[in-house]
Amino acid sequence: MGYVAAGYLTVLGGVAAYAAWLVRRSRQLTGDRRSGSVGPTRPREAREAP
Amino acid sequence: MASTTPAAHRSGGRLSPLLGWASLVLVGATVGLGLVLPKTAEQAEYSRLIAVHPPVAWVSYVAVGVASVAAIAYLASRRAAFDRVNAASLEVGAVFTALTLATGSIWSRPTWGVWWRWEPRLTTEALLLAVLVGAIALRRALPPGTGRGVVTSIFSLATLGLLPIVHFSVEWWRSQHQPGTLLAPEPSSNADTPYLLAMFVGFLAFTVLYAWMVVQRVRIERLEEQADDLALGRAIAERRAERADPPPVAPAVTGPAVPTGEQAV
After folding, report:
1. Model-level ipTM above the cut of 0.90
2. What is the tally of structural domains in chain B?
3. Are the Cβ atoms of B27 and A39 closer than 8 angstroms?
4. Which of A28, A49, B72, B144 lies at 20 to 30 Å from B25 by C-alpha?
């Protein structure tokens, strides 16, 4: 049963990890877009904020 | 320049949650059906891996196929939307190809006695993964634009050329891997109904999951393009503002008087 469990866990873990990255990256970019802190050259006030 | 309209921002729309929930339910059903499959005389309980390994391999084929269609559409039209679909499908395809190799390796350990063997199916599948990873790496190294889209498209078409070699390797060469069960010229579909059912639910589940992942990845690609455009616009505006209004000159630093040449003498 160990190999069967390992196979299922590999697939589920792999797709879950990639799906989580997709959701996190999407939310991060959406949040950046709303706050205006986008890209390497953020607004001056955002850079100077503590 | 990428579109920044609200409609573009809401890519996926209602489709994305629908695909997401459907894939969650279907993957759960696949696991449920797969883990209760009866043992077989040949492979004992290891045959239960049939519910995940062939469906994951199938999705890697689908991903390469979709990427190639998008690549041809991009080369013909130069529309950025096709380039995004191409890149997204390549990346998701690489994930599923890696999972195919991993699950195949786990299955081969108890049945073949080894984790890996350089036999035709495994070798060609590994080559496919290498080309996919190479395409993704090269795309990330190139600046956005038509050149990057063309290079990605060429790589996608190369992976499409590899697909029949991967699939028919078990027929063309002496392979330890079993011949095709369903997608073969002469399918050996002698599997019992519970196995076929688990496999077909698995095909459906991972195909829907693939679709959700591609929709998400295309959205990320678009948001990244918009972020780059916005950042570039800001950088140009700041540079122009700095030229128009130069920053105040800092006062000269006054230190101890340095003796001139005459004083020193």
Report:
1. no
2. 1
3. no
4. A28
User: What mean pLDDT do residues B245-257 have?
Assistant: 61
B3: pLDDT strictly greater than 50: no
CA angle B114, B118, B124 (to 5 degrees): 125
B15-57 pLDDT, tens digit per residue, is 888 999 999 999 999 999 999 988 887 777 888 999 999 999 9
Contact A10 B99 (CB under 8 A): yes
Look at residue B254 and tell me if it is in a domain. Answer: no
Cβ separation A29–B227 shorter than 8 A: yes
Q: Is the pLDDT of residue B265 over 60?
A: no
Which residue out of A4, A10, A23 would a mutagenesis test of the B interface target, given it has the greatest number of B Cβ atoms within 10 Å? A4
The β-bridge partners of B44 are B40
Cβ-defined contact of B106 to A7 (cutoff 8 Å): yes
Report yes or no on B83 lying in a domain. Answer: yes
B221/chain A closest Cα distance in angstroms: 9
Vertex B121, ends B118 and B123: CA angle to 5°? 40
Residue-level pLDDT at B193: 84
